[in-house]
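Methods — Computational structure assignment.
A single polypeptide chain was analysed. Its primary sequence is given first, followed by the predicted tertiary structure written as structure tokens.
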Amino acid sequence: MTAAVVHPALAQDMPGAPGDGATRAPGSKLDRVEIMGKQSDNDLRRRAQIAKQVYGREELDKYGDNNVADVLKRLPGVTMQGNAPRMRGLGSGYTLVLLNGDPAPPGFALDQLDPAQVERIEVTKGPTANQSAQAVAGAINIILKEAPKSSQRDLRLGMGYSVDRPTVSGGYTLGEKWGGLSLSLPISVFEWRNQNEATVLRNTPGLDGLPSRSDQRDTQFNFGRGFNLGPRLNWKISDDETLTWQSFLQKGQWNNRSSYLRQTLQGQPSFDDDGAYQGGWQNVRSNAQWVNHFTSADRIELKAGFSSSMGSFDGQTFKQDTVQRAILADNADLSLTQAGNYSHLLNDEHSLTVGWDLEWRQRDEKRTVTEKGIPQTVEFEGQPFGARIERQAFYLQDEWEISKQWSTYLGVRGERIATRSQGVGSTLSNTSTVVTPMWHLNYKLDPAGKDIIRGSITRSYKAPELGALLARPSLSSLFPDASRPNTELAPDRIGNPELLPELATGLDLAYEKYLSGGGMVSVGVFYRQVNDLMRNVTSLQTVGYATVPRWVSQPVNFSKAQTAGLELEVKGRAGELMPALFDPKLALNLRGALNYYQSRVDALPGPNNRLDGQQPWSGNLGADYRFSSVPVTMGGNLAFTPGYSTQQTLSQSL
């Protein structure tokens, strides 16, 4: 990543210079000189006040990826589960995804975002006061391209091969500048095709209530297409005042086909039906930002925005080519935000910022499910359900470079979160307050910053997803008849409007060494104590939508948990990392990462009472070689994650 640093300088008479002693004519104008400097990704990382990894255009363009999800798979400490990124093995709300510093809208698809629309990606290991504190594991900030400083035309075309035929992608960026106005208009189109296979062995009570065993092999084929549009307009009103408008549109359609090979091993087991599903999504986001440096030491920033997400779902399941279940569903999310901050420069190395962050978010969904043409639950089918979150946050942060070797960041953020869930004949509300102090401290072992020790103590939280607050039941696909019982391993599902946010206290320590040839080595450890842990718990309940007791899976604030880990990262030229094995002039770059994680949920027995979805370790290896005779670079990357088991509840393991 290269960043331009502009320093206006005035030509001045200097002793001994040509023309020394000459008198400048009154009223003559001095020329403005712009000095352009470049900062590498490592420079930005080294100078950051919190532990941060920065990946610019070089990393984004390295392998010709056609979506950001593929880029994230290569980054140290980041793994992907479906379309959701996970840091430190934790996803599902523990990892915060930001778009230009603001939380990404619901339904935002990383695997459908073209890297050509991205300026850089920043991965931080802890929360900061000026961003949402919902970053228990860390945050991934995707910064979209800014409007250009000159006219620009950029066309990119790509082709790949997936499953059974080629797939294509393309992007075009238009950039223009007229005086203080600059415009960027990137657009990209994409398509995908994937096929997955899985084998499921079940040992459950059968349709007759007696023990049964089955072997089910699933083949899933999914495909789709869509486009992204991300216009940005910058208006430089003066040297001290700017106005920016940026929008983002993502729209697409998807299809999924699933088929099964079934084998009965014992009794009368239940099997999943073949299925055909299709749907679409649309994400719209628009933000305006005004910044004014009204004195050399004072700065104010105001932001406002809205986002809208819509999705549709149309699916059918089949048994012997006969429709069993039909599902029609749609959902809509609307969000309004307003934020601002005021910064005061106490001196050249010390600044103080106060700010606020307001959000109103509403989710509405409607679903109709029929079994052989008959409504599954009469009172719920086709009825609207809604959930709302109102959030008000205020924060204070102090950034201070104490000396050439010591720097610190102090912050505190207070948030009030009010939730409201509406359904058939019921309205439930809940309010909670979260205060999250945070302290980051850096020590440079040498003034040049080649060796840095970082430490931080933070508080963060994980809020429940809006969908988890909806009290609409979803019946088990294996036991869809509400007049008959289901099993503990095939439960119905329902939300919980009374969920509280998880609170986490964290400690991070890291050592970073930056090599003279551009490489680096990093060793870090972390610890998190989590209270009010949310987890789906299955229990036998008497429910209003069934005539018999049913097993129901519902999210609850279950227990406390702890997680800790070790993170290793190394990258650089092979000759610099291993001079005994490689020639220092060899144009071979190596990189690797190894991460070890351990967690424990207090209310569950071991040995696999880990946090949901956290793998015990992960690794990443990569190499790039640049040929000297031709302008070609060849490289590869391998990311690996082991299989593992998780104790979900006292009686369930996954």
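Note: The first helix runs from residue 41 to 47.
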